[in-house]
Design brief:
It contains 16 helices and 22 strands. By secondary structure, the protein is α/β, with parallel strands linked by helices. 44% of the residues are buried.
């Protein structure tokens, strides 16, 4: 492949910068090595015009997975390469982080031949991008550790820092082997005196279309495959809301499984199965606006569906109250949600069916609140979480519905009906109260104001990513890396309460699931954040460069959460949201990440927030507040 005229520089340059894309002087050495931040990405044939830096640097919290990258380019054909880790030793002390806690992956390059439009200021190139992260021993076992002369090869490195690690600077040496040449790679790790919580505070619903997994795993499938995919997302601080099929065959099997999920700190949401009556609302009530049924028939159908929901919800409550009677404080309702319909078009029967479903769900809940009044009085926390069970629906529509509109009128979208004064009419309870609009809508200040108004009524708002074009965040392979990493920053800034994503393993029998990530007119890899483990003899899936950016963003979110906890203890009027916004404005506007956003500046911002948090956690709250006030003023 010919050398490209432009290079992809999207993230931090640790102590150096990119300035154009003419090739470096290769006469100095056959092998050039570059330490990269995790948000930096170069295409396979990009010429690198920057100073070499043969070292790895990491920084973050205890109990956190810290990531970095090492990239090399050789003027000779590479017939084998390897990177081996070593222990990291605390400066001035005896504490160590063992080499067994270091994971190294070869970045497999994926061809993007139909890149999606990005923005007027940034257009992605077609070509080969690093994406699949294959454990290096598995990569070598398939003899894939081969690199053409002049091409780049990146390696992804994780350091899993123990929760009880001593804070401070750790150092060590790794060894990079390219052909027969060995290079010592100095490693520095800074561990802040802050601990990443086990509990995930940013809820997610990264769905798995289980029926597609066999297209990638083939004969590698066994009875545990679905569950391994389901649990794999927990290692990335993510959550699939759809339980593996074995546990949704009946309410009994579902209840048995969620007892463990309810107390698992990594699990943030699970979907209540509604398979027995999933199409009833849509088929028999939504068309009522066309005169297919009489009002009496409509009401009778609503009663029947309401009773179906009551039977289901009663099983959850009976199990929960029985566990409470045994002395458990478990809450089976806290993470439960309904996901009845997806992306209903405006003015459609599907949209109307969501309104009807919400109506009958709330009617069922109201009756059960009365039936279980005594038990709820003794368990007020369970009452609150039961009342909070709602239907989530990915949809763009949050426009108001006037009080004069008939409840069957399509014009009202999914909005809760309103009283004459414009306030929500929750007694009617016919509208959606758990919104999940697509992320790009948040580019509009007016839309963000609408979201805040709905939240002021106590409604929930997540956001949804699906084929959204950058510079608004997307998960395309060719996306600007900071677009992915900044998602949780914008989310916290705008008080978006969770993330929904449509599929992580959209494998196909019609294409090579490693060689071709295009299956529609959009960008490469949408809906494909995982790769099949079968190719490398693995029972778990292979992660992607993009999935790791999401995981790193989830870790960033915990910094914001912890800062919020600390600020609430002070007399300061400044919130963590204001602090994140003060830094975020340097990287994004609305929901659009600047294509000129500098990765080193981003890394500096992250470390400044960690510095502030460390001051709080080490008893220096006054210093932390002063630093925050200085940041806000700047």
């Amino acid at each position: 492949m010919n050398k490209r005229n432009g290079c992809l520089f999207l993230a931090a340059l640790l102590a150096f910068s990119v300035s154009g894309c003419k090739g470096a002087d290769s006469g100095k050495d056959d092998l050039r090595i570059y330490g990269l931040l995790p948000t930096e990405k170069y295409m396979r044939d990009a010429e690198i015009a920057r100073e070499e830096k043969s070292e790895l640097s990491f920084a973050g919290m205890k109990n956190e997975t810290h990531s970095s990258q090492l990239m090399f380019t050789s003027d000779k054909k590479v017939n084998g390469f390897d990177l081996t880790g070593g222990e990291l030793v605390l400066e001035g002390g005896t504490a160590k982080i063992d080499a067994s806690r270091i994971d190294i992956y070869a970045e497999k390059y994926i061809e993007i031949y139909n890149p999606y439009y990005q923005s007027d200021s940034y257009l992605s190139d077609a070509g080969w991008y690093p994406d699949a992260l294959v454990p290096i021993d598995r990569y070598k076992a398939r003899s894939e550790d081969r690199v053409n002369s002049g091409e780049n090869q990146a390696l992804w490195v994780d350091v899993r820092v123990p929760g009880d690690a001593a804070a401070g600077i750790y150092k060590g040496t790794f060894t990079l082997t390219v052909n027969q040449t060995k290079k010592a790679i100095p490693v520095t790790l800074k561990v802040y005196d802050v601990t990443l919580p086990e509990e995930v505070h940013n809820p997610t619903a990264f769905d798995i279309w289980y029926q597609n997994i066999a297209y990638g795993e083939g004969n590698n499938m066994d009875e545990g495959t679905y569950e391994r995919y389901f649990e794999y997302l927990w290692t990335k601080r993510l959550n699939c809301e759809t339980l593996p099929p074995a546990y949704t065959k009946s309410m009994a099997s579902w209840l048995d499984y969620i007892e463990a999920l309810a107390v698992n700190p990594k699990v943030t949401a699970y979907r209540i199965p509604i398979a027995p009556f999933v199409n009833i609302v849509q088929d028999k009530i939504a068309p009522a606006v066309k005169g297919k049924y009489t009002e009496a028939e409509i009401n009778a159908e609503k009663v029947r569906i309401k009773n179906e929901l009551k039977v289901q919800l009663k099983q959850i409550l009976d199990r929960n109250f029985a566990l409470r009677g045994e002395g458990s404080d478990i809450d089976l309702c806290d993470k439960a949600l309904y996901y009845y319909e997806d992306e209903p078009p405006l003015g459609s029967a599907r949209m109307q069916s969501v309104r009807v479903f919400c109506e009958v769900l709330n009617a069922a809940k109201k009756e059960l609140l009365a039936e279980y009044a005594a038990q709820f009085a003794a368990n007020p926390d369970l009452k609150a979480s039961f009342e909070d069970i709602h239907e989530i629906c990915p949809s763009l529509y949050m426009q108001p519905k006037s009080a004069s509109e008939d409840i069957y009128d399509y014009g009202g979208g999914l909005f809760v009906s309103v009283n004459e004064d414009g306030t929500p009419d929750y007694d009617l309870s016919d509208g959606l109260r758990f919104w999940c609009p697509e992320m790009y809508k948040f580019d509009s200040a007016e839309f963000r104001a609408t979201v805040r108004a709905r939240q002021a009524y106590g409604e929930k708002v997540w956001w949804y990513l699906c084929v959204s074009n950058t510079p608004r965040p997307s998960y395309y392979v060719e996306s600007l890396p900071l677009n992915i990493r900044m998602q949780q920053w914008m989310q916290y800034d705008y008080n978006v309460e969770g993330i929904l994503y449509w599929d992580v393993a959209h494998y196909s029998a019609e294409r090579d699931n490693y060689g071709d990530l295009h299956y529609n007119e959009y960008g490469g890899g949408d809906g494909i954040l995982l790769y099949p483990g079968e190719r490398y003899g693995m029972k778990i899936p292979v992660s992607s460069w993009r999935l790791e950016q999401i995981r790193l963003g989830q870790q960033d979110y915990e910094i914001f959460y912890l800062l919020g906890e600390e600020l609430e203890k002070t007399d300061s009027d400044i919130t963590a949201q204001q602090l994140v916004s003060a830094y975020g404005k340097n990287f994004y506007k609305g929901a659009t990440v600047s294509s000129e956003a500098d990765g080193q500046d981003f890394e500096n911002a992250r470390l400044r927030l960690l510095e502030i948090l460390e001051l709080f956690r080490t008893g220096k709250s006054d210093d932390a507040v002063k630093l925050i006030e200085k940041t806000i003023k700047e």
